[in-house]
Amino acid sequence: MRFKRGVAVTAIALTSVLSVVGCAKDSASSNNSSGGQNGAAGCQTVDKPPAASGQASTSEVATDVDASSLKVGLAFDIGGRGDASFNDSAAAGLDEAIAQLGVKKENTKELTATDQESEDSKQTRLRQLAREGHNPVISVGFAYSEATKVIAGEFPNTQFAVVDGFVEGAPENVTFLGFAEHEGSFLVGVIAALESESCTIGFVGGVNVPLIQKFQAGFEQGVKAVAPDATVNSRYITEAGDLTGFTDAPKGQVTAKGLIDQGADVVYHAAGASGKGVFAAAHEAGIKAIGVDSDQYNQPTVAEYKDVIISSMLKRVDVAVFDYIAAVAAGDLANLPQVFDLKVNGIGYSTSGDMLSDETVDWVEAYKQQIINGEITVSDTPTTS
Amino acid sequence: MTAKLRSTLLAPTLAIAFSALLCALALLASGANPADALGVMIGHVGKGQVAVDIVNSTAIYMLAALAAAIGFQMNLLNIGIEGQYRIGALVAAIVGSALVLPPVLHWLVILVVASLAGALWALLPAILKVTRGVHEVLSTIMMNAIAFGLAAYLIRRDMFGILVGNNVSTEPIPDSGRVPGIDLGDRGTVFGLVFLAVVVAAVYGIVMKRTRFGFELKASGESPTAAAAGGVNAKKMVVVSLLVSGAVAGLVGMPEILGRDHAYTLNFAAGYGFAGIGIALLGRNHPVGIAFGSLLWAFLEKSKVALDNVGVPREIATIMQGSIVLSVVVAYEIVKRMDLAAEQRRVGRALGTAKPAEQVGGDGK
């Protein structure tokens, strides 16, 4: 423990020396450094990538369809509507469908999972929705994969979708709405590297599961792409099997505080409702934070900390849910993207609050284009787990 | 006998009535109609596979509650059931997927492995208790934390986990290791291991009532000094009862894993261990009481989905579960004192020397 801390301190000391040296050299040669607005410390960055060229191909699903006859059932993961993150994003997609596609609010139903429930409760929830005539039935969270496979077999004429889900051998009436979270995390990693002054960056994961490791992997790769010498410290609130890591703001605050004490001055979280604690810790320490899933700068639940939220990695569950409902209404599921990634705007980053300089945005846009063009492949598993 | 029966039934009835009243008040306060909510909860049982789900969950809760009851008989609070069943399930899933054996033998081996793993997880608290006097509540709670960490480690992709979409699972257990259930078609499938819970409950009842071991266990629980004077080895009883409790706890995850999931995944349900402690209290450590307690618990648990479906806060069911356990403890105490007072009056009348009944103190001393 002692030895480890010694190593960490040495590493931090070394990196800060390096970055100071780098900055000195940097400012002497060119001014491609972080955001351009501060001449203080910062990471030594690679050369700025060429400006973005070409456009993201937005494979828009037709929005002029009439979905007024649809009864839409939505089954949330724990947290439900109001978690300021993942579930809320799905809810926003449904709200959008109500506003634009003519889905009638009284024809929608939202149910929420309980903490520690068993598999049969998930099945019962989906069965209820399907039996009451809801079609499509959309479930939010990979935990529903197996239950959806079972219930879709019982209701072959109902369409089912699972956000984040996947399971082998699912029937044809199941659609899995998957995301390339690692690509968006790469972009906010670029932002973090440019915005950091201590060149030490933190990542807070909710629960140590493969899904959240995708966020960590992309983020670390993004930071390193811009600043190869930067230090990224990643911590998880709870280990696999203990889902409280997604709902426990105080634990999120303690975890973030630990990273800040290690020198982090930009912290990115992928921790659902625990993220509120991460923002609180960032607010207290006066450092910057990056939100996740929804555009958290504009979220009422974390409004008191909005001044620290410089950007959010957008996982457009709302887009996926909306597109899926539109596709069901049009009877054309084949045109839905296989994966919601940067290319189809299923993933992105936010600039709300105008806290990013144009310079930073230029960098991010350039990397974004490189990922879309396939010049950069973002890994979805962390190199150090 | 009827008086005894009445007093055993009176306490849980009072407790359930009291907590139902409490929930009704909570419902009224939140603006819902209690009668409607109750109707939905009961109507839910007849729908889909809910009745079968309740039976399946009852078996799982019974195993957890029996594990707790074995400790309670000796005044040992095994809080570690939660960790013991998780470790039992995970180890059994890993071993079960690696073995190639003929059907019945295969799942028997898996059950034995689960039991052994659960017992092993209770061994350290038992040793600490008899050698160093460490209270089992502390040590088993800590073992729970370690169990969660160990389980998270063992299911990593570089250990025994495989990635299925965004989920991590152990290798699936082959067909020979799966326990067939009773297929009721649209009504669902009753887990074959429901009968395991019945067998464990029966064995528990017989051992407690009819064997020397059961007598020694209860004697050590009621008065350790008297039991020691009677020649009972207290340390041995502590170790044995904690190990047996852990072994039964190890089985808690088996009905689901061998009957439905066929693997340990990230979705493995948590919380059965703590529910089991409450149910053992509710059932007063009696096998029949535990069976009914488990049934009630399972009913309330499943009704959460139905309540959510009609827009009633499903936390009502959780409030009811909690208030039943609390009020049952209080109710037993009240009934005990009432019985004592009644007994005193009766003896007093028989001897003809008692003061009038109403002057005998209500506290029964």
Automatic annotation (TrEMBL), chain A:
<protein>
    <submittedName>
        <fullName>BMP family ABC transporter substrate-binding protein</fullName>
    </submittedName>
</protein>
<dbReference type="InterPro" id="IPR003760">
    <property type="entry name" value="PnrA-like"/>
</dbReference>
<dbReference type="InterPro" id="IPR028082">
    <property type="entry name" value="Peripla_BP_I"/>
</dbReference>
<dbReference type="InterPro" id="IPR050957">
    <property type="entry name" value="BMP_lipoprotein"/>
</dbReference>
<dbReference type="Pfam" id="PF02608">
    <property type="entry name" value="Bmp"/>
</dbReference>
<keyword id="KW-1003">Cell membrane</keyword>
<feature type="domain" description="ABC transporter substrate-binding protein PnrA-like">
    <location>
        <begin position="75"/>
        <end position="380"/>
    </location>
</feature>
<feature type="region of interest" description="Disordered">
    <location>
        <begin position="28"/>
        <end position="60"/>
    </location>
</feature>
<feature type="signal peptide">
    <location>
        <begin position="1"/>
        <end position="24"/>
    </location>
</feature>
<keyword id="KW-0472">Membrane</keyword>
<comment type="similarity">
    <text>Belongs to the BMP lipoprotein family.</text>
</comment>
<keyword id="KW-0732">Signal</keyword>
<keyword id="KW-0449">Lipoprotein</keyword>
